[in-house]
Design goal:
single chain; 331 residues; alpha/beta; Rossmann fold; two-stranded antiparallel ribbon; disordered N terminus
Length: 331
Amino acid sequence: MERHSDSYTSVVHDKRLRMDSLQDIIIGNSPSMKAVFDNIMKVAPTDSTVLITGESGTGKELVARAIHANSNRRDNKFLAVDCSSLVETLLESELFGHEKGSFTGALQTKYGFFELANNGTFFLDEVGNLSLHTQSKLLRVIQNREVVRVGDHRKTKLDIRIISASNKSLEELVMAGEFRQDLYYRLSVVPIHIPPLRERKEDIPIFIQYFLEKFCKKMKRPIPETRTEVLEIMQQYAWPGNVRELEHTIERAIILKDNDVICARDLSSFISQKHGEFPMDSDELLSLEEMEKKYISFILRRTRGKKAKAAEILGINPKTLGIKIKKYGLS
C-alpha cells in the first residue's frame, strides 16, 4: 500500500492547528476537512457558541478540543459531558450542582459541570438528547451567564465558552417540537459540520497509515504491509460507524493477522464487499424510502439485531428506529 507520508505528515503537523496532545489529532486532506480546519481557526479566538454536527464516529469532540486548544482559554479547563449518558433525574444536579441537604442523598455540596468548567470551555455532546425542561434551564444559563445550584438561591457568575454537538438534526427536532428554537439559535451562532467518512474517501489511506502507526507503536509491533485489495475494499465500504469504525477495524486487523501482511481475510466480514456490503454505488435506482429501508436492514444485520447499537450508528433515537422497523416490516 502507498504510504501517503507527505499528506499524512502535513496534516498531523499543521502549523496553524494547536492540539492539546497527539491523541487529539484531526486528520484529513480532503476539501471538506480543509474547510473544517479553516472554520476552527476562524472561530477559536472568539467566545461565540459553536454547534458541531455530524454522524457518530466522525470526531465531533476532537473538533471541540481543537477549538479550545486554539482559543484564549487554552490554559483553562476543557470539560466534556455526554448528555445522552446523564440520568434525567440527576441531570439538573450534575449540570448546575446542588447544596448539601437539598434532596435525599445530597450528603454534601456539589459543584456542577458549569462551575467546574468556569473560565474554560464546556462541551455538551449530544445536546439533542436533553429534555425540554433541561433545555429551558440551559437557555437561562447561556442568556444570563450565571448558575444557581439546586437548593440554593445564590447566583454564581460564569465566564465560560459553550460548544455543543449533535448527531441529530436540531433543525428537525425544532420542527418536531422536541428542541427549543430559541436555544437552537443560541447554540448555533457558528455551525461546523463534519462530513461522514464515505463522503471523503480520499482521507481513508491517511487514516489507515495513522492508525497502523498508532497501534503498532502501542503494541510494540512492526508496521505490517497492507495489501492493495485491502485498501480497495476499505475505499468501497460505506463506513456507517465512520472514523471510529475504521480505527477499530485497523486495531482488529493488527491483532488477528497471521503474518506481517494485512489481507482481506483479516477484515470483518461486514466490511468485505463479498460479505454483504451496503451498495452505496449501485446502479439500481431507488426511492429515498427504499434506500432507507435497505440501509436500516443492513445496519440491523451488521449489529446482529441490537437496536440500541443500530440506532446509535444511524444517528436516530431507538424509538424512531422502532417506528421505522415497523413501517418497513423489518422485525
